[in-house]
From TrEMBL:
Residue ranges annotated for the Thioredoxin domain, each copy included: 22-110
Gene Ontology cellular component list: cytosol
Pfam families to which the protein is assigned, alphabetical: TXD17-like_Trx (PF06110)
InterPro entries per UniProt: Thioredoxin-like_sf, TXNDC17-like, TXNDC17_dom
PANTHER family associated with the record: 42-9-9 PROTEIN-RELATED, THIOREDOXIN DOMAIN-CONTAINING PROTEIN 17
Record-stated family: Belongs to the thioredoxin family.
Taxonomic superkingdom: Eukaryota
Entry GO MF terms: protein-disulfide reductase [NAD(P)H] activity
Organism placement in taxonomy: Eukaryota, Fungi, Dikarya, Basidiomycota, Agaricomycotina
Protein name in UniProt: Thioredoxin domain-containing protein
Length: 117
């Protein structure tokens, strides 16, 4: 299956070395669902695009609301500088090659973004 879920111990720098070409940053699951409504809104299209014969994507959870809101959250720092979730980053040769950083971009541009890989 093309959607792979990172375990919580993965180092942010190591993410550049994963075999997947896309990294999806989501809010963590709290009480059975992602706490971020925008993440829940894009979940369907993310599953659709990265299913079947689609490219692989790695799902990374950024923490619960309290963890995410802290300025020192590891994903807000170097090298990712994630400022909001959901965010999808395309990797090429171990470097960021493109980014969709809000639910409106993801809903309207994800299919084209993935095809332009």
């Amino acid at each position: 299956m093309p959607l792979i879920y990172a375990d919580g111990s993965i180092d942010p720098i190591t993410l550049f070395k994963v075999p997947e070409h896309f990294v999806v940053f989501y809010s963590s699951v709290v009480n059975g669902e992602m706490w971020c409504p925008d993440c829940r809104q894009v979940e369907g299209i993310v599953k659709e695009v990265f299913s079947g014969n689609g490219p692989d994507a790695l799902i990374v959870y950024v923490g619960d609301r309290t963890q995410w809101k802290k300025p020192d959250n590891i994903y807000r720092q170097e090298p990712w500088h994630i400022s909001n979730v959901p965010t999808i980053i395309r990797l090429k040769d171990g470097k960021e090659d493109g980014r969709l950083s809000d639910e409106k971009q993801i809903l309207s541009q994800l299919k084209t973004f993935v095809k332009s890989e």
